[in-house]
């Protein structure tokens, strides 16, 4: 009898503990951050947010870049969305159209605080669907030692496509090393690389009325120029993505690459490099570059949408965001105090900051993966010699209309 | 209740857990995929019935080319695995010093986690840092770096080679077991009659391992046809779609582009082909079983 009594008492204690913990349990605000580790500043900010919002606990999951977007999307599609997630802004239109995310309330003052065009990258049907969290412009990196070895002026980077090709050819002919790093792997940055050439030749992909403008003389020149670059680039561009380019550049195996400001932190210290605005094409009416943003998106159906918006605004407010940008080598989203000293502290910032004014955005398509795949196939067909630029461009232009 | 009826009920009761398991794990997803293939399911919450539209769409595109490529990929991969596996099994059966060590050395490709093995090959195929291009340049076969995964033909060959590397150990060990089950006195009698080594292989070994060869070929055919990891990790179906097989195309459509309805239609096509292979596999197995029973 005493034995059963002890058992019952024990069971009661266990049950009461479980019930107590259930009642006392905080409501979870789940968050996915893409990458290898949580941003250095986030743990303290999240702790501060939790202290201000008792009853809520932020659970951060880190997911590698390669799987991140698919995981976030699959969770949302399966009806078990994450509350807050880091997404490429190009995905927002599809998420919004599919009723998977909530609009982000933004005051006019909040919108005006960003550089021009930034808010456009997260706006669809007149509403903002994400809070920009990472921004990049692109520039040309060149290896000064390889330029010198090839007999070129190491202080003079190319400013036009013709100069780019001639310099790349000279390096290739004189040193045997690839003059240009052309990424064309089955990755999104192959599309981005093509867009560099589009925006530096006054081209567009889609106009303000949603009309596809891909099949234009400017874009044909861009694709023809990519074809022209193949012999002076690394062997087999379709085997390399942009990350590979940074490694090859760091290893002195290519003389020039195009990339974002983070490349500055990743290039080997042994390389003498310079960075300049992207060279412009024959139709250019001025400088050009590609603007890409990533955003924090708040997913629908978690019951903590308001808290997720609040947390995202804390993480990305002007002060916290600038610290994050400086730590990660990202182009600033807002002209906050401190931006003006970036160039004087580190002149390599200049082409990236100058590019903000004249950059073109990553086009927003409803089926962005369909659009992306069509452009990757187009570039790869030209790079591998399977198609002529004109035919490839016309084919891609015909196919992307269904994705807008 | 008669004794035989009771025994039948008992047998059915024993089968019940497995039946439920198969219904939940295999039958339900199959039926669901089939019904999904007639819808426009995507990220949108509304799902509409579209009839045969998804099937018309896939056959209106380059799906025919992808089917042919899948069969070519499977043919080369399975054939090479079977040839190397058979040669390997015969060699490992030979009475040579260190035979146990050689048998052990066949296992690593099979033991190493597949993704790690594939990444290793990915590095070896790299034109700038890869071993293959480096060695071929050093011995003068190549005059410049060659990125094997950059061109349609070499990328296709590279994916086949990697699949062969991973698949050969299983084939070798399976056929080795089959060879070891051949009675030794047959070889002794042939040797006494003066039969040469190749003659003994052709007239004794090969005919007697035909059942194992057929079974292994069918198993290898089904798994190779559905092979996803190797191509996805090495090329993601590129460059320019030249290593895209049916399973890669299905993944890109359903998971990569969130077109679940269209992806399901592609998955149904794979299912039909694999079902045909399975039909032939069971016919072979049944014939062999009937032969053994005689």
TrEMBL record, chain A:
What GO cellular component is one of the record's annotations?
ATP-binding cassette (ABC) transporter complex, substrate-binding subunit-containing
The record, for SUPFAM superfamilies, names: Periplasmic binding protein-like II
- UniProt keyword list: Periplasm, Signal, Sugar transport, Transport
Instruction: Please provide the Gene Ontology terms (biological process) for this protein.
Output: maltodextrin transmembrane transport; maltose transport
**Signal peptide feature range:** 1-24
CDD domains for the chain: PBP2_TMBP_like
Query: Record keywords: Signal included?
Result: yes
Stored InterPro entries: SBP (IPR006059)
Gene Ontology MF term list: maltose binding
Name the Pfam families on file. Answer: SBP_bac_1
Family, per entry:
Belongs to the bacterial solute-binding protein 1 family.
Classification via PANTHER family: MALTOSE-BINDING PERIPLASMIC PROTEIN, MALTOSE_MALTODEXTRIN-BINDING PERIPLASMIC PROTEIN
Q: What is this protein called?
A: Multiple sugar transport system substrate-binding protein
TrEMBL record, chain B:
Q: One GO cellular component term, please give it.
A: plasma membrane
CDD domains xrefs: TM_PBP2
Primary residence: membrane
Start and end of every ABC transmembrane type-1 domain? 67-281
- Could you tell me which SUPFAM superfamilies the record lists for this protein? MetI-like
Task: Using the record, list the residue span of the signal peptide; answer none if the entry has no such feature.
Answer: none
Write down the membrane topology: Multi-pass membrane protein
Q: Where are the transmembrane segments?
A: 7-31, 71-95, 107-126, 146-176, 204-225, 264-284
Q: Which UniProt keywords apply?
A: Cell membrane, Membrane, Sugar transport, Transmembrane, Transmembrane helix, Transport
**What GO biological process terms are annotated to this protein in UniProt?**
transmembrane transport
Location comes to: Cell membrane
Q: Name one Pfam family in it.
A: BPD_transp_1
What InterPro entries does the database record attribute to this sequence?
MetI-like, MetI-like_sf
Which protein family is named in the record?
Belongs to the binding-protein-dependent transport system permease family.
Task: Please give the name of this protein.
Answer: Multiple sugar transport system permease protein
């Amino acid at each position: 009898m005493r034995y059963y009594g002890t058992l019952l008492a024990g069971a009661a204690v266990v049950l009461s503990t479980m019930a107590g913990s259930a009642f006392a349990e905080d409501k979870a605000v789940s968050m996915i951050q893409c990458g290898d580790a949580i941003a250095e500043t986030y743990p303290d900010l999240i702790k501060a947010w939790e202290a201000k919002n008792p009853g809520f606990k932020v659970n951060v999951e880190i997911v590698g870049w390669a799987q991140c977007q698919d995981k976030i999307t699959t969770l949302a599609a399966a009806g078990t969305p994450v509350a807050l997630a880091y997404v490429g802004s190009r995905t927002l239109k599809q998420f919004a159209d599919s009723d998977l995310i909530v609009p982000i309330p933004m005051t006019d003052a909040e919108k005006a605080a960003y550089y021009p065009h930034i808010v456009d990258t997260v706006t669809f049907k007149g509403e903002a669907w994400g809070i920009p969290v990472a921004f990049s412009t692109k520039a040309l990196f060149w290896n000064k030692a390889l330029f010198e070895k090839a007999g070129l002026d190491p202080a003079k980077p190319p400013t036009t496509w013709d100069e780019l090709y001639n310099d790349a050819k000279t390096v290739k002919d004189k040193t045997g090393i690839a003059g240009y790093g052309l990424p064309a792997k089955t990755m999104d940055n192959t599309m981005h690389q093509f867009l560099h050439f589009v925006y530096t030749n006054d081209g567009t992909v889609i106009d303000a009325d949603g009309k596809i403008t891909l099949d234009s003389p400017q874009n044909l020149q861009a694709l023809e120029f990519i074809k022209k670059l193949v012999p002076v680039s690394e062997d087999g561009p379709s085997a390399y993505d942009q990350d590979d380019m940074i490694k090859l550049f760091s290893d002195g195996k290519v003389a020039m690459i195009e990339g974002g400001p983070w490349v500055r932190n990743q290039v080997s210290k042994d390389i003498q490099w310079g960075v300049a605005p992207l060279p412009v094409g024959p139709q250019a009416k001025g400088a050009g570059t590609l603007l890409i943003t990533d955003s924090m998106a708040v997913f629908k159906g978690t019951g903590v949408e308001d808290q997720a918006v609040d947390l995202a605004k804390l993480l990305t407010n002007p002060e916290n965001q600038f610290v994050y940008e400086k730590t990660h080598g990202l182009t600033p989203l807002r002209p906050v105090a401190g931006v003006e000293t970036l160039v004087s502290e580190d002149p390599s910032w200049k082409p990236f900051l100058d590019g903000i004014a004249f950059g073109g955005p990553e086009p927003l398509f409803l089926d962005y993966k369909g659009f992306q795949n069509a452009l990757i196939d187009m570039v790869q067909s030209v790079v591998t010699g399977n198609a002529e630029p004109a035919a490839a461009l016309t084919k891609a232009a015909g196919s992307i209309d269904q994705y807008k | 209740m008669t004794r035989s009826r009771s025994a039948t009920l008992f047998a059915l009761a024993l089968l019940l857990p497995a039946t439920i398991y198969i219904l939940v794990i295999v039958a339900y997803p199959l039926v669901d995929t089939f019904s999904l293939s007639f819808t426009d399911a995507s990220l949108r919450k509304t799902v509409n019935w579209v009839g045969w539209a998804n099937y018309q769409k896939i056959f209106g595109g380059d799906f025919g080319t992808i089917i042919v490529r899948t069969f070519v990929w499977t043919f080369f991969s399975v054939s090479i695995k079977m040839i190397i596996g058979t040669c390997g099994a015969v060699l490992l059966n030979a009475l040579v010093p260190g035979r146990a060590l050689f048998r052990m050395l066949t296992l690593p490709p099979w033991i190493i986690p597949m993704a790690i093995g594939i990444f290793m090959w990915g590095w070896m195929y790299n034109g700038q840092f890869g071993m293959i291009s480096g060695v071929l340049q050093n011995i003068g076969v190549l005059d410049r770096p060659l990125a094997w995964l950059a061109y349609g033909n070499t990328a296709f060959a590279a994916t086949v080679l990697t699949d062969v590397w991973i698949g050969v150990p299983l084939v070798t060990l399976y056929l080795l077991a089959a060879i070891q089950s051949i009675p030794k006195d047959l070889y002794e009698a042939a040797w006494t009659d003066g039969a040469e080594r190749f003659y003994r292989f052709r007239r004794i070994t090969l005919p007697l391992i035909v059942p194992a060869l057929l079974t292994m070929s069918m198993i290898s055919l089904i798994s190779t046809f559905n092979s996803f990891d190797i191509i996805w990790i090495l090329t993601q179906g590129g460059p320019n779609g030249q290593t895209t097989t049916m399973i890669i195309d299905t993944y890109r459509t359903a998971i990569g582009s969130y077109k679940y309805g269209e992806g399901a239609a592609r998955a149904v096509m794979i299912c039909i082909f694999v079902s045909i292979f399975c039909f032939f596999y069971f016919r072979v197995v049944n014939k062999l079983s009937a032969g053994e029973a005689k």
